[in-house]
Amino acid sequence: MPNTPSAVGEAASVMSLGVGATEQDGDLIAKLFGSVGKTWKADEKLFDAVTGVSGSGPAYIYLAIEALADGGVAAGLPRELALGLASQTVSLLILHGVLLLNQSCDIITPSCICVYLSQIVTM
């Protein structure tokens, strides 16, 4: 079950072996999926949740980047610069590990919009 970022070698794929699958089958699938990104194993009963996170997730991230860039454009930035800044912000989080919400206090100032957003998310 690879996702759309597989087109650029950054897939987040999850696999589950059926009862008739062999270990060699699993190795082959892991190798195939691994050629286009990262692969995890999970029970098939978790695939609805997997779909919500990694199947639909890229669309939500694209929308968030676009919205962040729109805010930059509304504040006067050229679209190309705003998209570059928004994309790099997401890339930075990926390169340095996922920033967990409860760890964000280290980088958020008290009057920052991030504080407001984190309160909404944790409700």
Give the SSE order as H and E letters: EHEHHHH
CATH architecture of the largest domain: Orthogonal Bundle
Question: What kind of sheet is the major sheet?
Answer: 2 strands, parallel
Q: Which range does the strand content fall in?
A: 5-15%
Count of extended strands? 2
Determine the number of helices (DSSP H or I, runs of at least 4 residues): 5
Return Rg in Å: 18 Å
What does this structure look like?
- Strands 1-2 form a two-stranded parallel ribbon.
- It has two domains: 52 residues, no CATH class; 65 residues, ProC C-terminal domain-like (ProC C-terminal domain-like fold, Orthogonal Bundle), CATH 1.10.3730.10.
- Helix 3 crosses helix 4.
- It is elongated.
- It is 53% helix and 8% strand.
- The protein is built from five helices and two strands; from the N terminus they run βαβαααα.
- The longest helix is centred in the middle third of the chain and has 18 residues.
- The protein has 123 residues and is mostly helical.
- This is Pyrroline-5-carboxylate reductase-like.
- Keywords: Oxidoreductase.
- InterPro entries: 6-PGluconate_DH-like_C_sf, P5CR_dimer.
Topology:
Layout: E1 11-15, H1 23-34, E2 37-41, H2 47-55, H3 57-74, H4 79-95, H5 113-121
Parallel strand pairs: 1-2
Helix pairs in contact: 3-4
